[in-house]
Each structure stands twice: as C-alpha cells, then as structure tokens.
Amino acid sequence: MDLANAHVVVTGASRGIGRELVEVLADRGARLALVARSRDALDALVREIGDERAAAFPCDLADSVAIDGLIDRIEATRGPIDVLVNNAGLDHTGAFTAMTAAQLRAVIEVNLIATAELCRQVLPGMTRRGHGHVVNVSSIAGSLPSAGVIAYCATKAGVNQFTAGLRAELKHTGIGTTLVEIGPAATQMMDHLRDYEPTAKGVRRLERLGLAPELDPRVVATAMADAITARRRHLRMPKRQAPISAIAELPRRIGSLVTLGLKTAPR
Ligand SMILES: NC(=O)c1ccc[n+]([C@@H]2O[C@H](COP(=O)([O-])OP(=O)(O)OC[C@H]3O[C@@H](n4cnc5c(N)ncnc54)[C@H](OP(=O)(O)O)[C@@H]3O)[C@@H](O)[C@H]2O)c1
Q1: pTM of this prediction?
Q2: For tag attachment on the chain, is the N or C end more exposed, with fewer CB atoms within 10 Å?
Q3: Which atom of ligand 1 is nearest the CA belonging to 152?
C-alpha cells in the first residue's frame, strides 16, 4: 500500500501510539481522519499537520449512537478510505469483580465491538473499489491472559480471532489485514497496569525474564506504517514475545489451510 496520498483513518489518535502513528503517516504523505473522544487534542494535531491533510472526527467509540454512520461521515467530507487503523483501546486494571457493569461494557465496546463495527462500515466501499487495508491493534495480552486485566485480555483475544476470520473472508478481494500484537509500550495505558499489584507483579516478572522490554511508541508507530506499506499480515513486537503470539496463532493457521481453495469472499 502506497501511503503517499492514501486516506487513513486512525482511531485513538489523541495520544499514545495512535498520535505517534498519525505523525509518522503524515510525514509519509498520507491524508488522515483522526478519531478519539478528546476534541481539543485532535484539533491540536490537525493544526500541527494542516487541515488540508488531516481532519478530526471526535467520537466516543463506546457509544453505539455516536459510532453509527461514522465511516459515511468521514467519506462524505474527506473521500474514500484506503486504510482503517483500529487502534483505540481501553483497559481497566483491578480485580474483575470490582469492575462496574458500565466499565466492563466500555472495555468490550471500545476494544472489540468498535473494531468490528468500523470494519463492518468500511469494508463494503473497499470491496467495491477492490482496494484497501485494515489494521487491528491487539496485544500480547490477546494470547497471554493476566490477572487484573482479564476483560481487556478477552477483548484482545477476540480481536485476534476476528482479524483471522476477516482475512479468510477477504481473500482475493484486494483488501489486506494487519494484526498488531505488541507488548508493553510507554503510554498512559501502561501507567494503569502498574496501579494494581497482582498485574504489576506479572509485568515485573516478564521484565525480569527479559520478555517485556518497554517499547517506544514512536518505534511501534514506525513499524506499523512499514507494515501497512508492506501489507504484512502480522506485526509482533518486541521480537522475543513473537513466538508466544505465533504459537497462539497456530490453530487459526491450520483453519486457513483447511479452507485453502474454498471461495470465502463476500457475495
Ligand atoms: N501501551 C501498551 O502497553 C499497549 C500494549 C499492548 C497493546 N496496546 C494497544 O495499543 C493501542 C493504543 O494504546 P496506547 O498505549 O496508545 O493507549 P493510550 O495512550 O491510553 O491511548 C488510547 C487511545 O484510545 C482512545 N480511546 C479510549 N477510549 C475511547 C473511546 N471510548 N472512544 C474513542 N477513543 C477512545 C483514547 O482517546 P480519548 O481518551 O481521547 O478518547 C486514546 O487516543 C490500544 O489498542 C492498546 O490496547 C497498548
């Protein structure tokens, strides 16, 4: 996928990895639609990049009314979308039973339902045009459940399974997918992980084993942009965690071998 002039939607663009990705993609000549709740942060980023290349679409992705028609609104004002990056994410660290019903729903809505819903909205247009790419940002937590973040882990496992299914369904359509599975990165999300001792202990043990060197969000964003250009199926960082994700992926790979040659594209 050539990023020069490509129209890319990035969710979770207001801070962290999403914000870094927007800057990297802008440097590579992409046109950007920025989604998150924080209108001021998105507007500041649009001013930094220039409003001919970027536009803000503030939206609470946990709100089914707000997300309804989001892709149509973006395409009506900015044109057809070439790449959708489902990066917005929400965790809640603590004992599962201490979560409120609203917190549990929000984690599932943002991480899993919004990811699937935005794919549902964007794919018909991409399929008609025979061109497009979808990036779903997951986590090592999708393969490695940890105490204190089990709802988050379950949503990321769902994103892994969903993206594998999507890839099978989109075979021969000209639309690619990239599943991003990363370990701890130095963003606001990581701060919360250390707030709850059982989770913090697990993180410290991974660090002691040398399995979780903290990633620089700019390095992650640069690798994501490279993965879109190369239309890579998977991006796994850091490298030493990649075998865990690859082993967890094995049954899905077997599934894709079993269905080899079957016509699975949408009709
Ligand atoms: N940091 C890590 O260690 C790590 C590790 C593995 C995977 N990841 C994944 O990487 C992705 C980016 O995370 P990050 O580390 O950059 O986290 P972050 O700094 O906390 O940023 C999260 C982004 O998601 C947006 N967001 C959260 N709730 C939203 C909602 N209801 N509606 C719309 N946007 C919402 C936030 O924007 P607003 O608050 O403005 O809405 C923000 O832009 C996530 O999918 C995360 O699960 C992160």
Answers
A1: 0.96
A2: C
A3: 47
